[in-house]
Amino acid sequence: MNIFSSKQLAFQQAKNTVIVALLLGMLISLVQIGYDFSIERRQVDSTIDQVTGTIKESAAMAVYHLDDSHANEVIKGLFEYKPIRMARILDDSDEILSQKTRKDSEEYGWLIKLFFEREKFYSFPLFYKSNKIMAGRLEISVDIYIIGKNFISRAYITVLSGIVRNIALAFVLTMIFYYTLTLPLVGLVKDVALVEPENPSARMVNTPRAHEQDEIGFLVNATNELLTGFGRSLEERNRAEGIIKEREAFIGGIMESVPAGILTINHELQIESCNPSAGKLFDYELDSLIGMPVSKLFCEPELSHIISVFDKYMEDNNPLIFYDAPDEAKILTRQSKTIDVELMFSEMLLEKQHLIVCVVNDITVRKQIEAELGKYRATLEEKVKERTSELLEANKTVHQSMQALKETQNQLIQQAHEAGLAEMAVGILHNIGNAITPAKVNTSMLAKQLHDSFVRRNILHIMEQFMGAMADTEKISEEERERLLSIIRLLPGSVEEEYDRIADDIKKIQDKHEHIEDIIRLQMSYARIATEQEVVNINVLVEDALKLQDDVIINKDVILIKDLGDIPDVRLERAKLIQIIVNLIKNAVESMETNNSLENLLTLSTWHEKGAQEYVGFSVKDSGIGFEEKEREKMFTFGFSTKQRGTGFGLHSCANYLIANKGSITARSKGTNKGAEFVIKLPVA
After folding, report:
1. Which among 416, 281, 264, 271 is positioned nearest to 362, based on CA atoms?
2. What's the average pLDDT block by block, 10 residues per block, for the chain (685 residues)?
3. DSSP string across 439-494
């Protein structure tokens, strides 16, 4: 990187300094010249006074006696002073007694003419001795140009010396500024130019010599700290991008595996995004479905109702409006085929943009079953009316119809149970993954130990040496024989030690596998529970939830405090309630990953609240990152999350379920990095 000389800081600083010095020097020189000029003018007057003072008496005598020769001698004496151009003596009648004029002998420059007049005229009265009567006058004209010539010469020298001094000063300052400012900065710029943008902290900027304690040294230190900060930020960004990609892949896998169709709808009532199940349901390619208006996908009369609800939501962004939306509707496929579907609406906040999430489930089979049930009911009523006399046969028909109804009910329960398994799958995979990871690490270490085993790599070589030595005992020295024997003596111990270590690793793997089986057994016990409400005790569910989150709590060094009181039972879906408790514990542990607290404290409490309405309370309190008061109101809205990788769906679904079952959930925090507490209240069964 080359910088033109005229653009270098050294040149710029030197130029500015010289200009200031030149202007200041010129001003001082002008003041000095003006001062010399005034002195020179006074000196002319003083000289004339001195010259005339010596001849006044002689001139007065010549005038008094009217002696022309004497007057001529006086005038001649005056002309010995070169600046005098004209001199004359006049008597009291203004008659010229003697006069002499000097011709101009040289031409003078414009500068002298600028500062000085051509001549200056003097007139002196002449008195003879003590007589006070004026005898005549002495008139003298002085050539000021001759006097000013010397003054101008001195002025030239003053100005030229100032210019030469400024030029020398400019050169010296340029060199000083170049070596003390420009050269170190150029080196600094070259070092900065060599920094790799992909890895800024790999190469630091060197401090120029003798500049460790000045501004350049401070600039280098600040630059190095900045590069180090950039490097850390870049590493964190790359790590965050990797986590985001993994998260996107994970969410994408879930979205692709969910059997229900999921649509996001924007303010223009167009499809913003969808999952593959939605494409299959509507019989469209995903690219064709995105951007399509909602009006082309739903049939009347539900379409008008849906659009009316959407318009109200777009006006005030109140998700409670979705409770007015229809639960069921008919959709229109690409082949103009109508399908009965079940609908569920919620909001999603994405980068300050409010989107509508629509979950579509195909209920064609359920509708067919309901239709069949209607036919059975109609047939039964008709047979009762027409065949009252055949009571036994009618009872048999009723029994058969009830049996078919029970089978249909079991099918519906099984379908609902299978729908819940998709939601449970994420938690199962997460817990199994936490348990499998240490087993996988132990397995990898075991494989590496077996591969790098000293005994495995060297046993053949040792045995070959031993067998060769034993075959030719005459060629082996006593020292080598002893060395081989010592190696052989070490082999059993080495083999035993290595296999003990392998056995320990295998035991660890077995323990982890047993832990996996416990997790799967517990998860399957909840997965087998029907979705009907039953009487449960929250304390039991809390203990089961802690077993499911055991690995997470241990790995994060969480200090667990349990304050479980004597509480009555509540009536809820057991699987739903365990999911809510697991979700709250998991959120609390994750919130303590980035907190500044010395200890990660997790407190679980239950209590019985009596009054007009009896409640069972449950709270999860942590020492994590917490939240501000302004975030509390949005805590349970869909899409909002205080975590960097949060989806904002967990707390939203928990709140919806609890409110639907006459319960409540609240959140409170004293501020950022001051922990948070989530409180659930459920009515007593």
Report:
1. 281
2. 54 70 74 75 76 79 82 86 85 86 66 67 80 80 75 76 78 78 79 81 81 80 85 85 78 72 88 88 88 89 89 84 88 88 85 84 86 77 68 60 55 43 47 55 59 60 61 63 69 66 67 60 53 85 88 84 94 88 90 76 94 92 89 79 64 85 91 91 91
3. HHHHHHHHHHHHHT-HHHHHHHHHHHHHHHHHHTTTTS-HHHHHHHHHHHHHHHHH
